[in-house]
Specification:
5 helices, 8 strands, about 30% helix
Length: about 260
């Protein structure tokens, strides 16, 4: 009986070791993939020919970063830009799919990936005035993708990382963080709630102002940053586990890079 018990315990320990090894392997693998992706823009080489071609086409505002995004689009036309918050782990290509699910499980190479991608809401309209760049990303336990957003719960962290940078193939812009808040996905039956994740292309100045007002009201602290109709916004959204279907959002307002 004792021998059987020892063998049983031994087998359980072996299984635990195997499962732990698989978990550690997958953790390291997904973190490495994310680190490789976050460094992707630094591997893109822009030579004098690219710069000269840009100048000859009268694209005077094209900097090296914009030209790199153009080259990234050659890898995958769904790449619409590069998102970065200096001093954080957030530095990734931004994808735009035909739905809001594909890039939750695929990387910029269109390969299946636990990390998914940072992606722009499928309904975003580049032509609408005062629009909102609503982007999603996973909150991963390997510290990558959008997990660093949750650090904005701390006002001290915000004060050190106030600027979001987003570069498309046409513009290179900075956004000053205006609001940081916890939220959740609300039931359809719930009334008079702030569904920030439905604000993308404002239909009126009133709708725009209501979003800004609700964002600042929900913010965990006062950033003393304001926005007015006509200013472009950016909203970064990720999962949060403070409640069922919890979400965490960071909202910024555009300011041109000087």
């Amino acid at each position: 009986m004792k021998r059987f018990l020892y063998r049983f315990i031994y087998c359980i320990l072996i299984l635990i070791i195997i499962f732990c090894s698989i978990y550690i392997y997958n953790f390291i693998k997904s973190r490495h993939e994310a680190e490789e992706e976050s460094n992707l823009i630094n591997t893109i080489i822009v030579n004098e020919t690219d710069i000269n071609d840009s100048s000859s086409n009268n694209l005077e505002n094209e900097n090296e970063r914009i030209l790199k995004v153009k080259k990234l689009k050659e890898m995958n036309e769904d790449i619409v830009g590069w998102l970065e918050i200096k001093g954080t782990e957030i530095s990734y290509p931004v994808l735009l799919g035909t739905d809001n699910s594909y890039y939750m499980t695929h990387n910029y190479k269109k390969e299946k990936s636990k990390n998914g991608s940072i992606f722009l809401d499928k309904d975003y309209d580049w032509n609408i005035k005062s629009n909102n760049l609503l982007m999603y990303g996973h909150n991963l336990n390997n510290g990558k993708m959008f997990q660093d957003l949750l650090k904005y719960k701390d006002e001290g962290y915000y004060k050190k990382h106030k600027i979001i940078r987003f570069t498309s193939d046409n513009e290179d812009n900075e956004y000053e963080i205006m609001a940081v808040f916890k939220s959740r996905v609300y039931y359809k039956s719930e009334k008079n709630v702030f569904r920030y994740y439905q604000f993308i292309n404002p239909k009126s100045e009133k709708e725009y102002n209501e979003f800004v007002e609700n964002s600042k009201k929900a913010s965990l602290y006062d950033t003393k940053v304001d926005s007015e109709y006509g200013d472009e916004l950016i909203t970064l959204s990720t999962c949060s586990y403070h409640t069922e279907d919890g979400r965490f959002a960071v909202v910024g307002v555009k300011k041109d890079i000087k």
